[in-house]
Amino acid sequence: MNKHSLPLLLLGLLLASCATNPTMQDLDRAELGPAPNRIRAESVAHQFLMATLKDPMSAVIQYLDIGKSWYRTSGFAAPKFAWSLGVSVNAKNSYGGYTGAQMYWFYFIGENWVATGAPTQVWNGTRYETAILIAESGGGGWTWEQAGLNKK
Questions:
Q1: 3-state helix, strand, coil in the chain (%, to 5)
Q2: Sequence-ordered list of residues with C-beta below 8 angstroms from that of 60, at least 6 positions apart, any chain
Q3: Angle CA(141)–CA(42)–CA(48) in degrees, nearest 5?
């Protein structure tokens, strides 16, 4: 082992430890206050989708249950806990064909919409932990960053 190997190995271990995901116990202990009103949460999701889909009038939308979840604002940032609303969307693309159902995630703290997860991949009916693009609301508008999702 040369003199540069040990510092590189320690740096790699440090970075790997920064990206650990919360456990189910962490999620259960998270203090989030009351869940958002379902009608308001669905309204926020609907408005976002109508503004961002290529052919919003073709959208087939299914709203899932609201539950505790988490996301990240960068790959190594600490996870942020929030209530999430999952939304399955099947809409037409630029070629006029349906894309197949894709999942979007809308994150709330109380009634405040704090982040939106872009479509994720589902394999064999299971949503896997992954990094996805989100828009996180801030004082100066929207910025695109990464988020993490729990395996369900």
A1: 25, 45, 30
A2: 89, 90, 91, 101
A3: 35
Phi-psi region of 117 (alpha: psi -120 to 50; beta: other; left: phi over 0): beta
In a 13 Å sphere around the CA of 114, the CA atoms on its Cβ side amount to: 19
Amino acid at site 152: K
Q: What is the tens place of the pLDDT at every residue in 99-122?
A: 899 888 898 988 888 888 765 554
Secondary structure (DSSP) of 98-124: B---EEEEEEEETTEEEEEEEEE-EET
Please, which pLDDT band fits residue 147 given cuts at 50, 70 and 90? very low
| Confidence label for 142 from pLDDT (cuts 50, 70 and 90) | very low
